[in-house]
Design a protein that fits this description.
The protein is of the alpha+beta class. The strands form 7 sheets. Strands 7, 8, 9, 10, 13, 14, 15, 16 and 17 form a 9-stranded mixed beta sheet that branches. Strands 20, 21, 22, 23, 24 and 25 form a 6-stranded mixed beta sheet that branches. The chain is globular.
C-alpha cells in the first residue's frame, strides 16, 4: 500500500525527498471504524481520471449540495462504481474502495518514485538483516519476540510514520523521520555482525592502547552485546528521542569525525560536513605517501631523513591553509563560477529590483579570493622555513633542553594570552573587582562617537596570539613529531603502515586545532607532558599519540564542566524560579536522582548531546545528538516587503505592517556590521575567550541579539544572529534589566550592609555573580549601527497650521523636482500635456475641488472658494523663479509661461491626490495621516478627469510627486528646529539639495529602503504605519548611522543548547501550546526567557534570524594596521616600489641638517628647526601661516592647499624680522611656499600616505661664504622660484638657459631661512615673499608649466559671516591657550584694543595667521578642536573661528 501515489505529477516533480516542508494534509489523525469504512467504500469512490487531473479534496463533507435534486438510489448506484485504479501491470489493475482521507489515515503519502523505491529497499534490508541475526542465534527465548517486534516497528514506520516523532525538529508532517528506524536498525545489525565476526577471528591482541587490547575477543564481544541490547531497546530509544533523524545523524557523525580526528571546524550543513571530511581525507592521503617513504628510510640517532623534513614542512603549510578555509564550499564555488563564467547571468532590465543588489556575496567572494592569493605565497614560505628548521636537526641535537624551553614558553604565553589578559579586561575580573583593571578609552564615555581605539593591551594580545599560533605551536608539534615518529612506527607499536597514517592524522589534527582555536590548547599540552612524563611515564604511547587522544578527552571534559555548571546554576535552591506548579513539584523529586543526573551529564558530554530541563523544571534528561549548528532546518527570516507581496495587498493593506517585521532590518544591518568586524574584534580580545559553539548576547538600548558562533577557523568566524523583539514581554524585560544593571553599588554581606573595599565587589555581589550561567564581558563594545528616532506623526500634524506647513513644503517640493528634472523641456513640449493643461491656462480658471481646504492650502482663494492660478502665483511664483535660476539653462518663468502652468497643474494634481487618498476628509487627522501614508508609499490614485494628462509620462508621478511628498516630511521635521529658516529660497533650495544627496527617504516596504540600510547610508527617513492592538499608529522614523555601544554577555553554551532542546521537545513532541508555560518564564540566573525566545519560529519568536554568516579578519582595518594587510603579489610589488621611493627621499633628507625620513616622505617640506614644524597629530592637518606687512603693500595671507587626495595641509615657521603697522621692528616671516610637482605625483606609490615622487632637483648647502648650490637627485629643500632674480643668478648661473636646473618644486626649509635672511637682508627676503609671481612671469616663456599660479603663492581674503564665532577676549586669557606670533599682535587682537569698534557681518580682510588643532608647532596650535584665523580688517586684528568666515578667493 505504501507504493500507491495519489499526488499529481506536477506537484511530485517540485518536491525532494530531503525536503522537510510541512505536509499539506492535516487529516492524519482521522478516526474511522469498520462500519464507517464499509459505508464509505460503498458510497465514496473517486474517478481515476479526475484524480490525475487535479489534486483536490473530493470528500462529500467539503462539497456543497448539488443544485438539482437527484434520486438517492440513482446517486448511490452511480457512486458505487467509482474507485481508485491501482495498476499492478500495464494492463492489470486493482480497484481500491477507499477515499483519500481514509487512505491518509492509514498510510503516509509518498510524493516521489524515489521514496517508493527507498521504502521497498529499506523494508527488504530490515527483513534480510533481521533474519540473518535470528538464524545466527543471537536471540533466544523472549528476546526473539522482542527482536521481531523491533523488526515490525521498523517496517511499519515505512508505511505509517509516527507524527510527530520525539526527535522531529519541526511541526507538521516530517517525511525524513519515517526512514530513521529502518536505517538505524540496518546499521546496528551490520555492526553486530561485524563485531561478532571480529571476535571469532581475532586470536591475540595486536593493537593495545594504554594497556587495553582493543582487538581482543573479549572487547569485541562486549561491544557486540552492548549493540544487541541497544537494538532491543529501540521502542524506548525512539520514544524518548535519543536518536535524531537520519540527515542530522550523518551531519553530526561527519562533523565529529572532522573535528576530533582531522582537527577541522564545525559544519554549516550536511553538504559542508561531507565536503570537510572528503577534503581532510584527501589531504591525509597526499601526505601519507611522504610520511611512509620517510619512515621506510634509515633513521640514524643524530639524523632525520630529509624526506621526513619535507613532510613536516608540507604538513605545517597544509594545516595552515586548511585552518583558513571555511567548511562551507558555496562561496568558493561561487568564486570559481564568477571567474570561469562571469557573464552567464543576464540582467533583466525590466525588473525594477535588478538594480537593488546585495553587496555581501561579492564582498565574501573578494575576501575568499584575497585569502587564497595570500595562502599561495605564505604556504610556500611556511613550508620552506619549517623544512629548513626541521632539517637542521635542532629537534634532536638540542634535546631535552629544547623541549623544556618550548613547553615553558608555551605555558607562559598561553597563561598570559588566554587567562591573565582576558581576566583583567573583563567587567568583573575574577568576580572580585568591580571594574576592569585594563580599561578601553571608551569605558568612561557616555556616548561613543567614533570607532573603538586600539589599546596597547589589544596590540599585545594580537602579537602574542600571532606568535603562539604561527611559531610556538608549530615548533612544539614538530618537536613532538620528531621525537615520536620513529617509536610510533616501530613493530612494537603500530608498524610502518599504520604508524605513518597515525603520524599524519595526529600531526594534521594538532596543527589545525592550534591554528583554528588555540584558547585551551596550552592546558592540554602542559597536562599531557606533565602527566605522561613525570606521573605515569610507563603508560605513555609516545607523546604524539598522547597529545592526539588527550585533545579529544579534554574537549569532552570541558563540555562536561559546562554541563555541570549549568545544572548546578539552574537548580540552585536559593535562586530557583518556579514558572509553574509542576516546577515546584519536580524540585524535591530531582534531589534523590542526582547520581543519575551525573551519569546523564557524562554520557551527554561524551556524545555531545544537550542536557535539557524537562518542561523547564529541575529534572534533566538527555536529548539526541546535534551538530554545533544545533538547528537542523536552515531557517532564516524572510522580510516581508513590496518585492515579495502582491500589488493588491500593498494597496489595500500594508503587508508586514508590524513593528517586528519592520524592525528586523536593524538586526540584518547589525549582522552585516558583525560580518565586517567580528573576527577582528575576537582576535583583538574584545569578546574575551571564545570557542566553537559559544553564545553571546549583545544588548543596547533597544537591540538585544544572541550571537551563536558556529565555526571558528584561523582568521574566520561563522556565526548566526538572532534578534529579539524591541518591546519584549515582561519576562524578557526583567532579564534585560539583570544583564544591564551594575553590581558595583551593592554593599550587602549576608543580611547586613557593611560596605566593601574600594574597587572590590561586596560579598553578596561576588557570590551572586558566581552562580550565574552568564557573565558580562564588556560594557562598551563599539559597533556601527543606526540610532533610531521615532516621533508620532499625529502629534506633529495635530493642528491645521502644521498641516498647512506640510502642504506648503509638499508644493514647493513638487516645484523643485519638476524644475530640476532633465526631462523638463520634453514635458513642456509634450502635446498631450499641453492639451490637458490648456484649461488651467485660462485667465479666470479656478479649481473648485472640495479637496482644497482654506485651513491647509496656503494659496486658497477665499473669494473664489478654490485655488486659482493668480493665488498660486502670489505664493509660489518667487520659488519657481528661483529654482529656475539655478538651472544650467534657465527657462521662461513669467506668470503666463508654460513652466508656471506645468507647476500649477502638478501642484493641484498632487494635493488632489492627497485629498483622494484621505477620502476627502483632510480636516480629520486620522484620514489625513492615512492619505499621507498612502502617497508616501507611492499609492497615487488619479480620480479626476482634469488630472489624466499626467498619464502622458508616468515619470511625473514617480520622479516628481512622490519625492515631493517625501521631502516635505523631512522639511516639516526641520521646521520645528528653526521655523523661519526655510522662508528664504536660497536656504530652502540648499536644504533640499543637501537632503537629496545625503538622506534616503523611502517607504519601509520599498526594497530600496533595505538596500539603503545595508549599503550604510548615513541617514534615512520613513513614515511607518503600524496596527497596534487595533489602533492605527503613524510614526516618523529617522535613522542616523553612528557607532553604538553594546554590552557583551557570554552565556554558557550548554545552557543555551539545553534550553533550546527542551523547548523543541515541549512544543513539537509534547505539543504544549500554552503561551504562558512555565519553561519560558524569566529565570535571571540562566536568562531562560531570552534564550527560549531566540529559538527558530514557531518554537521561539525572534524577529530576525540571520543566515549563517562568515566574518573574515581581512575586513578589519585596525587588525590590518597591527599585523599588516594580506600578502599578495600586487601588495608585495607596491611595498617594494613605495620602499624604494622612501629611500630616495630619505637620501635627500639625510644629507641636510635637521632632515629626517619622515619629513622627506612628505616631500621634503618639513625640516627641524628652532620653532619646530611638521604634520599635525591625528587629523594630519596644519596650515601655512604667514606674517603680514603693513604700509602701502597689502599684508600677505597664505591659505593651505590640498595635497592630492588626502588634503594634508603643511606649514612652516620662521623667525621675526619685520614689525607690525608702521614700525620697523622684528617681523615673523612664516613662509608657506609649497609647490607640488605634477611629475612627482604621477609615479607615486599607492601605499604612501603622501603622494609624492622625486625628480631631479637642486638644494642648497651652507658654507662659510654663503649659500653654495649642490646638485642632488633627491628631494630639494629650497625653492628658487620665489627668490629675486639677482639671488638666482648668484645661486645658479645657468638658470636663464635651463630653468629646470635652478627651479625647485619645494619650499625653503626653516633651518635655512636665517642664512637666507642674512644674505638678502630684511628688504630682500620680504620682497621675495611679497612678489611671488615675479619669477613665474620671468620663466613663462621657458617653461609653460610654471605659468600656473599656485594657491600658496597668493594672498587670500575672507568675509565674516558669523560674528558669534569671533573670539573677542582670547588675547586676555590668563591661561595663554594660544601662542601668539608677537606680543604686539596679541595686544592688538581683541576688544581691549578695538574700543568702540566691533567686527560686523560682511566685513572683509586678510588672513595673517592661523592656529590649527593638534599642530606640532606651538605657535600654530589651536587649543580647541577648530581652526582659528587671525584676520586683519583695515587696521584691526580679529581672531575668529574658521567656520565664521567664507573665502572670497585669491587676490593677485
Amino acid at each position: 500500500m505504501s507504493l500507491v501515489n495519489f499526488e499529481p505529477a506536477t506537484r511530485r516533480a517540485s518536491n525532494n525527498i530531503w525536503d522537510t516542508d510541512s505536509h499539506l494534509s492535516r487529516s492524519t489523525s482521522v478516526r474511522f471504524y469498520p462500519h464507517d469504512l464499509i459505508r464509505l467504500n460503498r458510497l465514496l469512490t473517486i474517478d481515476p481520471e479526475l484524480l490525475e487531473q487535479q489534486d483536490v479534496d473530493l470528500s462529500p463533507e467539503l462539497h456543497d449540495a448539488p443544485l438539482d435534486l437527484e434520486d438517492p438510489a440513482t446517486a448511490a448506484a452511480r457512486k458505487a462504481k467509482q474507485h481508485y485504479r491501482f495498476w499492478l501491470l500495464p494492463n492489470l489493475w486493482v480497484g481500491l474502495h477507499f477515499d483519500r482521507l481514509t487512505l491518509l489515515a492509514l498510510f503516509d503519502r509518498n510524493r516521489e518514485v524515489l521514496e517508493n523505491i527507498l521504502a521497498v529497499v529499506l523494508a527488504v534490508l530490515v527483513a534480510f538483516l533481521g533474519s540473518v541475526l535470528l538464524v545466527s542465534g543471537f536471540f533466544t527465548d523472549i528476546w526473539v519476540f522482542q527482536f521481531c517486534l523491533v523488526i515490525a516497528s521498523c517496517q511499519y514506520s515505512l508505511l505509517k510514520s509516527v507524527q510527530p516523532d520525539s526527535s522531529s525538529p519541526r511541526h507538521g508532517h516530517n517525511r525524513i523521520i519515517a526512514y530513521s528506524r529502518p536505517v538505524y536498525f540496518c546499521l546496528c545489525c551490520v555492526l553486530i555482525w561485524v563485531l561478532d565476526y571480529g571476535s571469532d577471528r581475532t586470536g591475540s591482541a595486536r593493537f593495545t592502547l594504554y594497556g587495553v587490547a582493543l582487538t581482543s575477543s573479549l572487547v569485541l564481544s562486549s561491544a557486540r552485546d552492548l549493540v544487541i541490547v541497544f537494538t532491543l531497546c529501540f521502542p524506548i530509544v525512539f520514544f524518548v528521542g535519543l536518536l535524531p533523524q537520519v540527515n542530522t545523524f550523518v551531519m553530526y557523525l561527519f562533523e565529529q569525525l572532522d573535528i576530533h580526528v582531522f582537527g577541522g571546524n564545525a559544519s554549516t550543513s550536511l553538504l559542508s560536513s561531507l565536503y570537510s571530511v572528503v577534503r581532510s581525507v584527501v589531504t591525509v592521503a597526499l601526505l601519507y605517501g611522504l610520511c611512509y617513504g620517510a619512515l621506510k628510510e634509515t633513521w640514524e640517532p643524530q639524523h632525520i631523513p630529509v624526506l621526513f623534513s619535507v613532510f613536516c614542512g608540507l604538513l605545517v603549510a597544509v594545516s595552515y591553509h586548511l585552518s583558513r578555509q571555511s567548511s562551507d564550499p558555496s562561496v568558493l564555488i561561487s568564486l570559481v563560477h564568477s571567474k570561469l563564467l562571469p557573464n552567464l547571468k543576464d540582467k533583466n532590465t525590466e525588473d525594477p529590483l535588478s538594480e537593488v543588489q546585495d553587496p555581501l556575496p561579492e564582498k565574501l567572494r573578494g575576501s575568499v579570493s584575497e585569502r587564497l592569493h595570500s595562502d599561495l605565497i605564505i604556504c610556500v614560505v611556511i613550508a620552506v622555513l619549517y623544512f629548513a628548521v626541521h632539517v637542521s636537526t635542532m629537534f634532536i641535537v638540542l634535546q631535552p633542553f629544547l623541549s623544556y624551553v618550548l613547553y615553558s614558553l608555551l605555558g607562559a604565553v598561553g597563561l598570559l594570552t588566554h587567562y591573565l589578559l582576558p581576566q583583567v579586561r573583563k567587567q568583573l575580573p575574577w568576580y572580585c573587582f568591580s571594574h576592569p583593571l585594563l580599561k578601553t578609552k571608551e569605558y568612561y564615555q557616555f556616548e561613543v562617537r567614533g570607532v573603538a581605539h586600539v589599546m596597547w593591551f589589544e596590540k599585545l594580545h594580537v602579537w602574542l596570539l600571532f606568535f603562539e599560533k604561527n611559531i610556538l605551536y608549530p615548533l612544539v608539534i614538530l618537536n613532538v613529531l620528531s621525537g615520536s615518529a620513529r617509536e610510533l612506527a616501530s613493530p612494537r607499536k603500530l608498524d610502518t603502515e599504520v604508524g605513518a597514517l597515525m603520524i599524519t592524522v595526529a600531526g594534521l589534527k594538532l596543527l589545525r586545532s592550534s591554528y583554528s582555536s588555540p584558547t585551551y590548547q596550552y592546558i592540554t599540552v602542559l597536562f599531557t607532558v606533565l602527566f605522561f612524563t613525570f606521573d605515569y611515564r610507563n603508560l605513555s604511547e609516545t607523546l604524539l599519540l598522547d597529545l592526539f587522544l588527550m585533545s579529544i578527552v579534554f574537549s569532552k571534559l570541558w563540555e562536561l564542566f559546562y554541563k555541570l555548571r549549568f545544572v548546578y546554576t539552574y537548580i540552585a535552591p536559593w535562586q530557583i524560579t518556579w514558572g509553574s506548579a509542576f516546577h515546584a513539584f519536580a524540585q524535591p523529586f530531582a534531589v534523590p536522582h542526582s547520581a543519575m543526573l551525573f551519569v546523564q551529564a557524562v554520557v551527554s558530554a561524551v556524545l555531545s548531546t544537550p542536557l535539557n530541563p524537562f518542561l523547564g523544571s529541575a529534572i534533566f534528561i538527555t536529548s539526541y545528538v546535534r551538530p554545533v549548528k544545533f538547528w537542523e532546518r536552515d531557517y532564516n527570516t524572510k522580510r516581508v516587503d513590496h518585492s515579495n507581496t502582491r500589488l493588491a495587498s500593498q494597496l489595500d493593506r500594508t503587508p508586514g505592517s508590524d513593528d517586528n517585521n519592520l524592525n528586523s532590518i536593524f538586526y540584518e544591518h547589525l549582522t552585516r556590521s558583525l560580518q565586517h568586524s567580528l573576527c577582528g574584534d575576537l582576535l583583538l580580545g574584545r569578546w574575551g575567550n571564545y570557542g566553537t559553539g559559544d553564545c553571546f548576547i549583545l544588548a543596547s538600548d533597544y537591540l538585544n541579539a544572541l550571537v551563536h558562533l558556529v565555526e571558528i577557523g584561523n582568521g574566520l568566524v561563522t556565526f548566526q544572529l538572532r534578534g529579539l523583539e524591541f518591546r519584549g514581554t515582561y519576562c524578557q524585560q526583567r532579564e534585560v534589566e539583570a544583564i544591564t544593571e551594575g553590581v558595583e553599588e551593592d554593599e550587602s554581606c549576608c543580611c547586613c550592609e557593611p560596605g566593601h573595599l574600594p574597587h572590590i565587589l561586596s560579598f553578596n555581589a561576588a557570590f551572586g555573580q558566581r552562580w550565574l550561567a552568564w557573565e558580562v564581558l564588556v560594557t562598551k563594545y563599539v559597533l556601527e549601527g543606526y540610532s533610531i528616532t521615532d516621533n508620532s506623526a499625529a502629534s506633529m500634524l495635530q493642528v491645521f497650521d502644521l498641516r498647512r506647513i506640510l502642504t506648503t513644503y509638499y508644493v514647493k517640493g513638487i516645484i523643485y523636482y519638476v524644475i530640476a528634472s532633465t526631462k523638463l523641456e520634453e514635458w513642456l513640449a509634450n502635446e498631450t500635456m499641453r492639451e490637458g493643461l490648456k484649461a488651467c491656462g485660462e485667465r479666470n480658471y479656478v479649481d473648485l475641488d472640495p479637496t482644497f481646504n482654506p485651513n491647509i492650502d496656503q494659496d486658497y482663494d477665499h473669494r473664489l472658494a478654490g485655488i486659482s492660478r493668480d493665488s498660486f502665483c502670489q505664493v509660489y511664483l518667487g520659488w519657481i523663479q528661483y529654482c529656475n535660476s539655478r538651472r544650467p539653462k534657465p527657462l521662461d518663468s513669467e506668470k503666463d509661461s508654460s513652466l508656471v502652468l506645468l507647476c500649477f497643474g502638478l501642484c493641484v494634481l498632487g494635493r488632489r491626490a492627497l485629498g483622494t487618498a484621505a477620502h476627502h476628509m483632510s480636516s480629520n487627522l486620522e484620514s489625513f495621516l492615512y492619505g499621507l501614508h498612502a502617497l508616501f508609499k507611492g499609492d497615487f490614485r488619479i480620480s479626476s478627469v482634469r488630472d489624466e494628462w499626467v498619464f502622458a509620462d508616468m515619470e511625473l508621478l514617480r520622479k516628481v510627486v512622490v519625492p515631493g511628498i517625501r521631502m516635505s516630511l523631512k522639511l516639516h521635521q526641520d521646521h520645528f528646529t528653526s521655523p523661519d529658516e526655510y522662508d528664504e529660497p536660497v536656504v530652502l533650495f540648499q536644504a533640499i539639495s543637501s537632503h537629496q544627496q545625503n538622506l534616503v527617504i523611502a517607504h519601509e516596504g520599498d526594497p530600496a529602503w533595505r538596500s539603503a540600510v545595508l549599503s550604510n547610508s548615513p541617514s534615512l527617513l520613513a513614515l511607518r504605519h503600524v496596527l497596534d492592538e487595533g489602533t492605527n499608529e503613524y510614526k516618523i522614523i529617522m535613522l542616523n548611522r553612528r557607532y553604538l555601544s553594546f554590552r557583551v554577555i557570554k552565556v554558557n553554551k550548554e545552557c543555551v543548547r539545553g534550553l533550546w532542546a527542551g523547548q523543541q521537545q515541549e512544543l513539537v513532541f509534547l505539543r504544549n501550546r500554552n503561551p504562558e508555560r512555565g519553561s519560558i518564564q524569566n529565570a535571571k540566573q540562566a536568562l531562560r526567557n531570552m534564550i527560549n525566545s531566540s529559538c527558530d519560529q514557531p518554537i521561539g519568536y525572534p524577529i530576525y534570524v540571520s543566515p549563517l554568516t562568515t566574518s573574515y579578519c581581512n575586513s578589519h582595518t585596525q587588525l590590518g594596521h597591527i599585523l599588516g594587510g594580506p600578502i599578495s603579489i600586487g601588495n608585495i610589488r607596491n611595498f617594494i616600489v613605495s620602499t624604494w621611493h622612501r629611500l630616495r627621499k630619505g637620501c635627500g633628507a639625510g644629507c641636510n641638517s635637521g632632515g629626517n625620513i619622515e619629513d622627506s616622505d612628505a616631500g621634503g617640506l618639513s625640516c627641524a628647526s628652532g620653532n619646530g614644524t611638521g604634520l599635525s597629530g591625528d587629523s594630519q592637518q596644519s596650515s601655512v601661516s604667514q606674517g603680514g606687512l603693513s604700509g602701502p603693500a597689502a599684508p600677505l595671507a597664505y591659505q593651505p592647499h590640498n595635497m592630492g587626495e588626502d588634503h594634508h595641509h603643511i606649514h612652516h615657521h620662521g623667525h621675526h624680522h619685520q614689525g607690525w603697522g608702521t614700525s620697523q621692528s622684528s617681523q615673523s616671516v612664516q613662509s608657506g611656499l609649497v609647490h607640488h610637482s605634477p611629475a612627482r605625483a604621477s609615479v607615486t606609490s599607492q601605499s604612501s600616505s603622501y603622494r609624492y615622487n622625486s625628480s631631479r632637483h637642486s638644494s642648497l648647502r651652507t658654507s662659510a661664504t654663503g649659500l653654495e648650490p649642490c646638485r642632488r637627485s633627491s628631494t630639494s629643500q629650497l625653492s628658487l622660484r620665489t627668490l629675486p632674480t639677482s639671488l638666482q643668478l648668484r645661486l645658479g648661473s645657468g638658470s636663464s638657459s635651463d630653468p629646470s636646473a635652478s627651479l625647485s618644486s619645494h619650499s625653503i626649509p626653516p633651518c635655512k631661512r636665517h642664512t637666507l635672511v642674512g644674505l638678502l637682508g630684511n628688504d630682500g627676503l620680504c620682497s621675495a615673499m611679497a612678489d611671488p609671481l615675479g619669477q613665474h612671469h620671468h620663466h613663462n616663456q621657458h617653461n609653460p608649466a610654471l605659468s600656473t599660479v599656485r594657491r600658496d603663492d597668493i594672498s587670500y581674503r575672507v568675509q565674516i559671516v558669523d560674528v558669534s564665532q569671533v573670539l573677542e577676549i582670547i588675547n586676555l586669557s590668563k591661561r595663554k591657550e594660544l601662542q601668539w606670533p608677537d606680543e604686539t599682535v596679541r595686544l592688538r587682537a581683541g576688544r581691549s584694543c578695538w574700543r568702540d569698534w566691533r567686527p560686523l557681518e560682511g566685513m572683509e580682510g586678510h588672513v595673517i595667521h592661523r592656529w590649527v588643532p593638534c599642530s606640532r608647532d606651538l605657535t600654530s596650535r589651536s587649543h580647541i578642536d577648530k581652526t582659528i584665523l587671525l584676520v586683519q580688517v583695515d587696521d584691526k586684528l580679529v581672531p575668529i573661528i574658521e567656520t565664521g568666515v567664507i573665502e572670497l578667493g585669491a587676490e593677485v
